[in-house]
């Protein structure tokens, strides 16, 4: 292993996600394992600009593998988007003796890392942390699996009350512009219909599907709506539209919101975080930079940050067909 890197900084940035703490723990302990120092940076890039740092050793990450959120806190820093902000941040890292950086976050955070690398020739490595699963170069981002389980758990509960009252529920889930959460949680929770941005079902087909569902003897229904769905109506407008056209339905809306980002990470996310943290640190020590570590077909891989930012992990449209068949 290269001896040029003696100290690695780690930060979490953007929307938090379950598994970020397990990734911090992995980075800190892998550094300790290889005799490299580790510096925790609070509040993402904003903390880098303000010099909000804390030396971290293997004991500073005790008992966090099971905790949601991020002990390093997270932020979306406007100042880091300016050259002045990045110069301050770089100077602080140099003053603190940091030689390389691990950034745990989504594509916005990776864009910051890439620019920082380019401007200061500073070694960076990304770990994908977002519930949205919208990053190219990894089949799973940290927190996605936990969020799916949270959503399924919520919809199971909604189903109890929906079926007791013979109601139709529109359940809005997160995902920004991607439908991964909606599609997979929708199938897992047995939704009658799933609306995702990648495939515009159209209002007519939605009406048709709900009519068919009623005619087939179903007395209650769940429609999962991705927040980024492009149907042209938000979830409350959808409710009004369906109420107008199918007055026989008693409809409620449930927006799951930020609860999807919280909670103890699943075993899958903890293992993934541990694997990605090891790879991120060891890749930096091998002299690699400007990559994102991810997982593809259960193999930990490196993808150039630029590709990870520009691409999107594609949605499997076959899942929509599976969903259709399941809602027969
Ligand atoms: O990217 C994660 C995410 O939770 C998205 O699913 C959602 O659109 C967004 O962040 C919400 O961001 P904020 O925390 O700023 O409300």
UniProtKB/TrEMBL annotation:
Residues that bind Mg(2+) = 107
- Where, subcellularly, is it found? Cytoplasm
Which cofactor names does the annotation list?
Mg(2+)
Spell out the Pfam families in the cross-references. Answer: PFK
Active-site residue list:
132 (proton acceptor)
Q: Which pathway is it part of?
A: Carbohydrate degradation; glycolysis; D-glyceraldehyde 3-phosphate and glycerone phosphate from D-glucose: step 3/4
> Where does the record place a coiled coil?
none
Residue positions binding ATP: 15, 76-77, 106-109
Q: Which domain of life is it from?
A: Bacteria
GO molecular function annotations of the record: 6-phosphofructokinase activity; AMP binding; ATP binding; fructose-6-phosphate binding; identical protein binding; metal ion binding; monosaccharide binding
PROSITE patterns registered for this protein in UniProt: PHOSPHOFRUCTOKINASE (PS00433)
- The answer to whether UniProt assigns keyword Magnesium to this entry is yes
Q: Where does substrate bind?
A: 130-132, 167, 174-176, 227, 252, 258-261
The UniProt keyword set, sorted, is: Allosteric enzyme, ATP-binding, Cytoplasm, Glycolysis, Kinase, Magnesium, Metal-binding, Nucleotide-binding, Transferase
Could you tell me which residue ranges the Phosphofructokinase domain spans? Answer: 7-283
Q: Which GO terms describe its biological process?
A: canonical glycolysis; fructose 1,6-bisphosphate metabolic process; fructose 6-phosphate metabolic process
Q: Which reaction does it catalyse?
A: beta-D-fructose 6-phosphate + ATP = beta-D-fructose 1,6-bisphosphate + ADP + H(+)
Among its keywords, does the record have Nucleotide-binding? yes
Q: How is its activity regulated?
A: Allosterically activated by ADP and other diphosphonucleosides, and allosterically inhibited by phosphoenolpyruvate.
What the record says about family reads: Belongs to the phosphofructokinase type A (PFKA) family. ATP-dependent PFK group I subfamily. Prokaryotic clade 'B1' sub-subfamily.
What job does the chain carry out? Catalyzes the phosphorylation of D-fructose 6-phosphate to fructose 1,6-bisphosphate by ATP, the first committing step of glycolysis.
Q: Tell me the subunit arrangement.
A: Homotetramer.
The protein here is known as ATP-dependent 6-phosphofructokinase
Which organism is this protein's natural source? Flavobacterium dankookense
The coding gene here is pfkA
